[in-house]
Amino acid sequence: xxxxxxxxxxxxxxxxxxxxxxxxxxxxxxxxxxxxxxxxxxxxxxxxxxxxxxxxxxxxxxxxxxxxxxxxxxxxxxxxxxxxxxxxxxxxxxxxxxxxxxxxxxxxxxxxxxxxxxxxxxxxxxxxxxxxxxxxxxxxxxxxxxxxxxxxxxxxxxxxxxxxxxxxxxxxxxxxxx
Length: 178
Fold this sequence. Notes:
CATH architecture of the largest domain: 3 Solenoid
CATH superfamily of the largest domain: E3 ubiquitin-protein ligase SopA
Number of domains: 2
Strand order of the largest sheet: 1-2-3
CATH class of the largest domain: Mainly Beta
Shape: globular
CATH topology of the largest domain: Pectate Lyase C-like
Number of helices: 4
Structural class: mainly alpha
Oligomer: single chain
Mean pLDDT: 79
Distance between the termini: 60 Å
Helix content: 10-25%
Largest sheet: 3 strands, antiparallel
Low-confidence stretches: 1-7, 10-31, 38-51
């Protein structure tokens, strides 16, 4: 079944089956459709699980860690990945918004162009991590170690933690206190 517009710009259902059209069954061929019904059907299809990006679960992430360290361009939104060893993984251009990386080992990870918006990195080890162009706005960093991390052009949570505190952790390897 296909929906098209007739001459009056009203939606009509048109069967894809070939059939011979005669004048008396013209009314059967063009069936008017309620516009609200069409609108809600389209939105049901758009909102279906098939069209939404799939967020990886903790178990799926652990399974993937067994075979690869490449998590680039994946969607981890709201995943609980606390206390896992992701050292030297690639998260480039991944969506890590609201992810819980509390007490995780993220040493040497590549977070270039990744969104870590509102993520929990408390107690995480980010030594030598590449955070270039990453979005760290509203990210929780208390107790995190950022020693020698690259934060060039990254959006830092300076409204939550003073810039000097972040830079001290990068330069000296100390934990972020706030």
